[in-house]
Amino acid sequence: MTVTQFEFRQLRKALNVSRSKMASLLGIQGKYPAKTLSDIEYGGRTAPMAVQKLASYLLQGTQSQTDVLPEYLACQALVGGIDYGIYIRTRYPRFLATAGCHPTKGMPKAAISDNEYLSIMYWIDEPVDDPTAMLTEAAVLVRARDQAVFDDLWAWNEYKKTDEYKKEMAYWKGKYPWYDGED
């Protein structure tokens, strides 16, 4: 993958680092590594293939590469009869976290509710110094998602009590006798 000059600038801005620090992260050496990076960012020089490969890897977790994905992906997993919520942060620094009654021992955690925690299980990128603020923000989003799911279920159960629902189910059961009315 060829990294464009625009993507080099986007990467540095996404990581919020100076040209000197970015040049160091990318392994650019020489007398003036920040000037070399500036030349790459503005098209005056082509980056070596090794620098491009590293930059393309680092770009995977930045907004420019993930703007089609939500910041957090949520899914459920049933492991040993226990239902776990799994959350993947798609922005830098990326991580995999679980939601459950017991926080992961020795890993950063944030409370979702009185009896549920969000715990980092695995860092995809290098961990940040203090992930508490990031996890607290994620826990707020998880809490809001859980409330929205609960609200949807409540609304669905209320709808199932209406005459409109009963008429609709009678229609579908008449058309498809095997249809039991459940999704």
Explain how this protein is built:
- This protein has helices at 5-15, 19-25, 33-41, 49-59, 63-66, 132-159, 163-175; strands at 72-79, 82-89, 95-100, 109-113, 116-123.
- The chain has 183 residues and is of the alpha+beta class.
- The protein has a five-stranded antiparallel beta sheet with strand order 1-2-3-5-4, with helices on one face.
- A hairpin with a 2-residue loop joins strand 1 (72-79) and strand 2 (82-89).
- Helix 2 crosses helix 3.
- The longest helix has 28 residues, at 132-159.
- The protein is elongated.
- The two termini are 43 Å apart.
- The mean pLDDT is 80.
Task: Output mean pLDDT.
Answer: 80
Cα shape: elongated
Q: Pick out the low-confidence regions.
A: none
The largest beta-sheet arranges its strands as 1-2-3-5-4
Helix content: 40-55%
What composes the largest sheet?
5 strands, antiparallel
Radius of gyration: 24 Å
Q: Secondary-structure element sequence?
A: HHHHHEEEEEHH
Oligomeric form: single chain
Straight-line N-to-C gap: 43 Å
Structural class: alpha+beta
* Secondary structure tally, helices: 7
Strand content range: 15-25%
User: What's the total number of strands?
Assistant: 5
